[in-house]
């Protein structure tokens, strides 16, 4: 199962996310759930890096399927829109394939 923790501040604004695990929907190389989530997350990271001036800390551990992004000093309206778009896509995948493969948790942090 892919577990995605979405971190928001007290004002409800994104400050980052942590994705871990694999969907195990199908065999390695054929898992469309894992591939969908991976594409959405990698595109988010690339988009924030190229289309905004926001800075972030990124940790990737491919073997465990871990990906953690934490924005430095919050995020701009552009990054907020990109994060909203990414989460819309991930929620759509979760709705289509079920919570057996993707679990999304929102966590408030300081």
UniProtKB/TrEMBL annotation:
Signal peptide: none annotated. One of its GO terms (molecular function) is cysteine-type peptidase activity. Keywords: Hydrolase, Protease, Ribosome biogenesis, Thiol protease. Belongs to the Prp family. It comes from the Bacteria. This is Ribosomal processing cysteine protease Prp. Pfam families: Peptidase_Prp. GO terms for biological process: proteolysis; ribosome biogenesis. PANTHER family: HYPOTHETICAL RIBOSOME-ASSOCIATED PROTEIN, RIBOSOMAL-PROCESSING CYSTEINE PROTEASE PRP.
């Amino acid at each position: 199962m892919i577990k995605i923790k979405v971190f928001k501040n007290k004002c409800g604004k994104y400050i980052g996310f942590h994705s871990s695990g694999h969907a195990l929907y199908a065999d390695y190389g054929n898992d469309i759930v894992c591939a969908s989530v991976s594409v959405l997350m990698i595109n988010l990271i690339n988009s924030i890096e190229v289309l905004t001036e926001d800075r972030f800390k990124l940790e990737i551990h491919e073997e465990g399927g871990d990906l953690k992004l934490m924005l430095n000093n919050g995020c701009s309206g552009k990054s907020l829109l990109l994060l909203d778009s990414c989460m819309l896509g991930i929620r759509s995948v979760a709705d289509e394939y079920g919570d057996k493969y993707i679990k999304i948790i929102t966590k408030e942090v300081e």
